[in-house]
Specification:
This protein is α/β, with parallel strands linked by helices. Helices cover about 30% and strands about 30% of the residues. The strands form eleven sheets. Strands 1-3-9-5-8 form a five-stranded antiparallel β-sheet, covered by helices on one side. The chain has a four-stranded mixed β-sheet with strand order 2-11-10-4. A hairpin with a 5-residue loop joins β6 and β7.
């Protein structure tokens, strides 16, 4: 048996060999965070077993990694391509290929000469600081191998999501949960499965959790007469009881086309959201929702989205929808993915794409300097070399995405796809269908469903650790030093380094700068 300790920032493929990787020389970590690494096992005989030397303040978890098929590569501009020549300069491998992405919480009882395991370490807030060497013993039915992890724990505590500066939200599909797990919304079984997703969202570092739309009630003439919020309150109650920081109401309108001016109601494409009929339906909606939110005590937790991705050409219509909302729920902040900068007063948290922010940075900076709150988001466009959680881009990109939040001087990150696995077999074809095309592999989801369970991905782990590192970057009072450190790895959405060893180097420098800052403060 051969054993190779592989950085979590590197993908392992079916044709990967131990000699392809350089093991991390040292892992740098802090209190209240986590770190992980992969174990590539070759020529395994029977079922492997892993034992890890004890270390005060660290809880070790070992799981099996599963292969996922990437059927097409990320295209240069949008969606996917089968033309490798046009994408070979930025993708890691020519599709189709298989990559280890899903992480189970245990080892499988199966045979295979190649096995990939994931080791996750959770560092407590009272873990003793210092330098350590942690021994791993890996044993199969024929032999025993040993490996060592050099580890430095710094006397720095990472702010937890509920107490930190960084906000995060991922859109959530309640209907796909119902379809994939074959459970019906409104039942205890549905709630049981949803709770697993909720626990993962919290473990992920999410501060804002999406709510579903209410059920639309129509009369015999097909007219909207009421809205049933029982499903909404059921999810809201579960989320608040689980300790979420904020809940986010669902969008009520959407544009007809990307370059169009008209918004229609989500539940009826024939109704213009800014028409008299649109207003009357939204009035029914928000009057009832406002009463429920007040009665249930949701207002301290509640944020809202209205109409995803308002554009410059439909900014006036979006303002009208926002005005209706504020008439009935004036104390609830609005958070919106935006593609425009002329929405002042209509949104409370601006969330442009990273590329959009860089393109119109001067305009957005004026708003930031005036005290407006900014997050940013990534999605399938622009594609190509631009950072996203795609499975054919370098793995460390999923980490860098969160580093860009403090680099920009923002306070949060949004992604649309927590569990939008719309394909028929995401294990063989990770590029989920969308409006007649295919999304880049992994863009639609960052977790995996198996039966009544749900499991994280390697990208999930990287983004979670990136979240903690973003909080640590915030601790640096010197903004220039913060940006200088981050820029060693990534400075724009399409400019980043691909050497995974650079990450631990930068983390070490970051921790040392924080300690130096602390010492200077004491003097």
């Amino acid at each position: 048996m051969q054993v190779k300790l592989v950085s979590q920032n590197d993908w392992i493929f079916t044709d990967s060999k131990a000699e392809d990787f350089r093991s991390p020389e040292r892992i740098h970590t802090a209190r209240g965070t986590r770190f992980g690494f992969q174990l590539l096992l070759e020529e395994v005989v029977g079922q492997p077993e892993v034992r890890i030397g004890g270390l005060d303040g660290i809880a070790w978890e070992i799981g099996e990694m599963l292969l996922v098929g990437v059927d097409e590569n990320t295209a240069p501009k949008m969606m996917t391509t089968t033309n490798y020549e046009e994408c070979k300069d930025y993708v890691t491998k020519k599709a189709p290929f298989y990559v280890y992405d899903c992480i189970l919480n245990k080892l499988q009882s199966r045979l295979g000469s190649q096995r990939v395991l994931y080791v996750r370490a959770r560092v407590s807030e009272d873990a003793p600081a210092g330098e350590y060497s942690v021994e791993l013993v890996i044993e199969d039915e024929q032999e025993e191998q040993k490996a060592a992890v050099a580890l430095t724990i710094y006397p720095i505590t990472v702010p937890q999501p509920k107490d930190g500066r960084l906000g995060m939200v991922n859109f959530f599909s309640f209907s796909l949960l119902e379809k994939v797990h074959q459970v019906k919304q409104g039942t205890e079984e549905y709630d049981r499965v949803y709770q697993k997703y909720l626990d993962l969202q919290l473990d992920f570092g999410q501060t804002h959790v999406m709510l579903p739309l209410p059920k639309v009630i129509r009369n015999e003439k097909n007219e909207v007469v009421d809205f049933d919020f029982s499903g909404v309150t059921r999810i809201a109650d579960l989320a608040i009881a689980s300790g979420v920081k904020h809940i986010v109401g669902a969008c009520v309108a959407h544009w007809d086309s990307w370059d169009g001016t008209r918004y229609h109601l989500i539940w009826d494409k024939d109704v213009d959201a800014c028409s008299v009929e649109g207003y009357l339906q939204l009035k029914k909606y928000y009057q009832k929702w406002a009463g429920i939110a007040e009665e249930k005590g949701y207002l301290p937790y509640l944020y809202h989205s209205l109409a995803d991705e308002p554009q410059i050409q439909n900014a006036v219509q979006y303002r009208s929808i926002a005005a209706i909302f504020r008439s009935f729920m004036p104390k609830v902040p609005l958070i919106e993915a935006v593609e425009a900068f002329e929405l002042g007063g209509a949104v409370n948290i601006w969330v442009p794409k990273g590329e959009t922010f860089e393109r119109w940075e001067n305009e957005y900076r004026k708003l930031m300097e005036a005290g407006e709150t900014f997050w940013y988001y990534t999605c399938a466009f622009p594609a190509g070399v631009f950072m996203n959680r795609s499975m054919d881009l370098p793995a460390m990109v999923s980490r860098y995405i969160l580093w860009m939040v403090p680099y920009y001087g923002m306070s949060g990150y949004l992604h649309w796809g927590f569990n939008y696995y719309s394909g028929e077999n995401i294990w063989e074809k990770a590029c989920c269908p969308h409006k007649g095309e295919l999304l880049p592999a992994g863009d639609a989801h960052i977790v995996y469903p198996i039966g009544g369970e749900v499991y994280p991905s390697l990208r999930f782990e990287l983004q979670r650790e990136g979240r903690d590192e973003a909080e640590l970057f915030y601790l640096l009072k010197d903004e220039n030093k913060r940006r200088e450190l981050i820029a060693k790895a990534v400075s724009r959405q399409n400019v980043y380094q691909k050497d995974s060893s650079l990450i631990e180097q930068i983390k070490g420098e970051l921790y040392e700068e924080i300690l130096k800052q602390s010492e200077e403060k004491k003097r």
